[in-house]
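Support request, please re-run this one:
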Amino acid sequence: MSFHGIVGWLHSVFVLQFDGWVVVGFAAQALFTMRFLVQWLASERAGRSVVPVTFWFFSVIGGALLLVYAVSRHDPVFIAGQAAGLLIYARNLWLIFNERRSALAKVE
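Re-run finished. Output below.
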């Protein structure tokens, strides 16, 4: 592919397709990516690998927005991937909150 072909492709992907949904998609991807930053910083602070609860909240919020974006784009692969991920993220939050509730019940 020539330089002009690459520039034309980049223009068609990043300029001609630009709309409100692309803004939503990029915002969703930024939120989804934040989970890795949060996990990395928490691990650095602890000096070991940890997965903070915030990781799962960013996963749910970013994943839900990415699912909305995928549905708006009619992308079956992206829809299936994000929908399956949301079930896993939500289940992890459920397990965390059940564990905390059990720990509080034992204290009382």
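Residues 39 and 51 are 6 Å apart (CA to CA). Residues 18-107 form one domain.
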